[in-house]
Amino acid sequence: MGGEAMKNIVITGSTRGIGYGLADAFLSLGCSVTVSGRSQSTVDKAVAALAAGYDAGRVHGHPCDVADLEQVQALWDAAQARFGHIDIWINNAGVGQPAMPFRELSPDLMRAIVETNILGTIYGSRVAFQGMMRQGGGQVYNMEGYGSDGAIRAEASLTIYGTSKCAIHYFDRSLALELKNTPVLVGWISPGMVATEMITGQYAGKPEEWERVKRIFNIIAERVDVVAPWLAERILANTKSGVRIAYDSKLRLMLRFLLAPFVKRDVFGDLMPE
Predict the structure, then answer these.
(1) 95: domain CATH number?
(2) Number of domains in the chain
(3) Mean pLDDT of 32-46
(4) Catalytic site residue 54?
(5) Annotated catalytic residue within 161, 170, 203, 247
(6) Whether pLDDT at 166 is above 60
(7) CB-based contacts of 91: which residues, under 8 Å, 6+ apart?
(8) Residue 270 lies in a domain
């Protein structure tokens, strides 16, 4: 990637799923990466796995609950102490929900979804912006998800999660306007449906329902190791604020549906609901 390859990246919620995939992709492109998750043990495991395939000096980890502002600040401080200038900060940490009516969700899970997905993104953006202003610039990206397009695709069984991502949609656009005349670039990432535990976890304890939806999900979804490198390359190449970097397109989805009778996809593999 030439001069773009040696950037320092911080990714919240990157011990598994799309966050881990992005960490792996950025490392493959020559970047240094700080991974983060809620517990020290999951962070250590992710760091060890990534360091086994790349220069260990380019991999760092620090635990962080993004719903705690002090912990988010500590994550920035740890990454900066290790790598110096932070070029890109990605607010990826998120909590999903089972596919069920919101009234059946526990209050604790509702709170976790709202605090992690909304407050965590706000805190991460605030800490990154302040740090990047002090260092003279940088880029902040927020992860969108189901619900980011508002009421266009409302889903009755994902009410709380979809609401949280709808809020991030507004936050992203408004933040980009606020920071328009600053050296901090703001963008948002839309990976589409990616085969991760966040998807399969919606159907935990519902094997019959999973079998019913798996066929269509195998058409719509894509593997992490396909989506993450595509996103990472475009994030590194981006120089504009207010840009949505989206993997899925109407054309890509249309082609998958047209080819579905002839090409059988199994993007979930052994990834099954527990």
Answers:
(1) 3.40.50.720
(2) 1
(3) 97
(4) no
(5) 161
(6) yes
(7) 12, 66, 120, 121, 124, 125, 128, 140, 141, 142, 143
(8) no
